[in-house]
Design a protein that fits this description.
homodimer; 215 residues; alpha/beta; Helicase, Ruva Protein, domain 3; Dna Topoisomerase Vi A Subunit, Chain: A, domain 2; 2 domains; four-stranded parallel beta sheet; two-stranded antiparallel sheet; 6 strands; 39% helix; elongated
């Protein structure tokens, strides 16, 4: 019944997060009605996403600028290469959009680790374990000046900026156990955010208060 | 703050119907994380939408088969070129997806005119006027056998399959006035569909009843 190109588009796009099969079908008809030039513009912006890199420290997606870093080596993003930011305070967030929301409050001057969306079963994916290991070895190597009497290098603080939900609580205690030896204190965002809500949808004011009242 | 390719993607995609800026941004990060091969697959399905044609009779989007029609001339779609379907009963729908919903009921054996989404101010766009003119001249040329004593060619019936909303009612009376001389009777779908709802979301059963009870 559906033309083949529409069907293929709908199949592909309904795999994307938060796009259902019906919306995908409507999008296909809509885009097909826009004509060749507009379709080219759309495929161009998607191909443009190929030019992004992942920051090897915080795992943020960024456009590598030509000036920073060495050729052939993954480059640090703008936040991680900013010398004015404190290296000893680290916020662990699940998603890029959570990071962006925190940055907008202008209340946080440390750096980030994007861990990826956490499972509801309280287990970490292999990729998430790798990212935690990267964080631990960064702390060991780069934060020697902060080492305690025991000789163990520690960050001053790790903020577990995960959603204030039941699953977030579960995952926060998991991460807290993993990182206990690596930080002077491990905090979470203040519960200014309504319980059950999501970081991404909080307004800047609420989120700013949540940073102030973390603990 | 956002990497340039993400920003461009989000700008382009939030212009599409039912995609907001926030969803577009999340999609951009998601797609960029899929890697080059997957990004190529996605741009391919979009480019595939270039291979579609608009049926010159019902204005449906379809994949022209190589067998039907003459070269260089726009080809009729599968429904309009089906000799078993009655030419003298015509359903006017707003969207492709409305047509698809009606086809699924298997209760309608006429053909369609896709008029495009109707405005809330009760005025037709130039393109919509062209489509109505195309319908009128089709009726004049092809339905001569049905001409009444006055000599005017008429369709047996035109079903105004527009949404049963206030705006749908407004637009239906507009279309009824336009087409009064061109059909033996002009009907609307039976109000089996809950008032305020949309054709696209009705289940097949309800929509089948609505076809039975049209009038």
């Amino acid at each position: 019944m559906l033309p083949d190109p529409i069907k293929k588009f709908a199949e592909e796009f309904s795999k994307l997060p938060s796009i259902g099969p019906r919306q995908a079908t409507r999008l296909a008809f809509y885009i097909s009605s826009l004509g060749k030039n507009k379709i080219k513009e759309i495929t161009d912006v998607i191909s443009g996403l190929n030019n992004l890199e992942t920051c090897p420290r915080c795992f943020r997606t960024h456009s590598p600028s030509t000036s920073s870093g060495q050729a052939g080596k993954a480059k640090l993003c703008g936040i991680c290469s900013d010398p004015t930011r404190s290296k000893s305070i680290i916020a662990i967030v699940e998603k890029e959009t959570d990071l962006m929301s925190l940055e907008k409050t202008k209340k946080f001057n440390g750096w980030y680790l994007i861990i990826g969306e956490l499972h509801k079963n309280g287990e970490l994916e292999p990729e998430q374990k790798l990212r935690l290991s990267a964080l631990k070895s960064f702390i060991k190597k780069e934060l020697n000046g902060h080492s305690t009497s025991s000789g163990q290098a520690k960050a001053d603080e790790i903020i577990l900026a995960v959603n204030p939900t039941i699953y977030g609580d579960l995952n926060a205690s998991l991460l807290k156990k993993e990182l206990a030896e690596y930080a002077g204190k491990i905090t979470r965002l203040g519960r200014g955010i309504p319980t059950g809500g999501e970081i991404e949808f909080a307004d800047e004011e609420t989120l700013g208060q949540a940073i102030d009242k973390r603990g």
